[in-house]
Structure formats: C-alpha cells, structure tokens
Design brief:
Layout: H1 19-32, H2 44-51, H3 55-67, E1 71-72, E2 80-81, H4 86-110, H5 113-131, H6 136-150, H7 156-177, H8 182-200, H9 204-233
Antiparallel strand pairs: 1-2
Amino acid sequence: MNQPRPGLGVVEKIQRGPLREEVRDQIKQLILTNRLRPGQTIVIDRLASELGVSHTPVREALAMLQHEGLVIMKPYGNPQVADIDDTNVRDVWEMRFLLEGWAVQQAAQTLSDDETENLGRLLARARQDALQSRYDTHIESDIVLHNTIMQSVDNRLFGHMAQLVNDQSARIRSLVEAIAPIEEILTIIDEHCAIVDALRQREPQLARAKLVAHLQAGERRTLDALGKIQADTE
C-alpha cells in the first residue's frame, strides 16, 4: 500500500502561532484524509517546503504524531505514515465498541430534542444527495453523528481517549468509503437513522444495540473493502 504521490495539492502555509502544533495539525489532516497515504514514505525536505517551514518543526510534529499512532519514525531513513491492516482495523473497532457503546447510552439521556432533530434532518439530506451521487453530506453526517455521541460525555480523560480512537477510525473510513457503492452508502445511512431514532426515543439500551449493530456491520464492510484495496495494489 506504499504509493508515492506526485503532490499533496493545495496545502495551507503555516504563518504564525505555536508552530509545532500547527505543523502537527496540518500533517495530521493530510494523514486523516489520506493525502498522505498508509505506508507512504514522508520526505521531510519536501513536506517542510510545501508547508513553508524549516525541518525542525516538521520533525517535532512527526514525533508527536508517532505518539498518536499515525506515523512511524525510524532511526535511519525517512519516517512513514502508519500502515492500515486487518489487525489495525480490528483494534480500532474494538475500542469503538467500548467507547461509543458506552457514550451512546449517555447521549440517549442527555441530547436535546433539537440536537436529535438536527441529526435527523442532516441524515435525510444525506440520503437525498446520495441518490444523486453526491456523497459529501453523507461523510459530514457520519462525522457529526459519531462526534455528537462521543461529545455527550463530560469527561476529559474519556475525551482524550476518544480523540485518539476517532483519528484512527477517521482515516480508515476515509480510505474505504471512497470505493463504497451507492447501495452500501444507503445502508449506512439507514443504520445511522436507526441510532438517531433510538436517541430520539431516549432509550439507552436500544441506542446501544443499534450502534453496536452498526459498528459490527461497519467492521465487516471495512475489512472487505481493505481486502479489495490490498488486492488492487499487489
């Protein structure tokens, strides 16, 4: 899956602020959206040039991203974007079962009617757009729903753990959803609607059951899609 890329497209130049953190955020976004792809070698000279900074903040940022499990630093040679394999997917989804399964029960008790109605409207728009082969709203609704569930928990330690898992999950989903057929997208939207309906009813156990079913199906879809991607690169 090590696929060199000719360029990263439009990259925002770093101008001011805490330089190391800004560089980290820029590189993280490139990784989470797979503009820096799994297994890809990171050429520090080139990346520093594209970001408009020196080597030092890039190296510091990459070291920070190594602690987040997104980059592999090597004693000799260039660093690499962490690869994605079946074990990685299973590890991430196992943590999602634990964290999101608990969080959705809290969300069923704490989300307001306005919040659940907004989620419902967003999913309805995602379905309409998907039927016209426009998928940006689906991706947005996916992110908003899962983030809303996780952010319903008022616990900073939980939030830190959830962010680490969410970053890993986001780049995996970004990679595989790019090849998902329309039927699969509509199935995912149906699963999301079932979760929102349970949240709207304020039924914690039902919400957890719907979310776990969605994650189980999502794990199967992700592993199948990853297998296709790997077969195409061999």
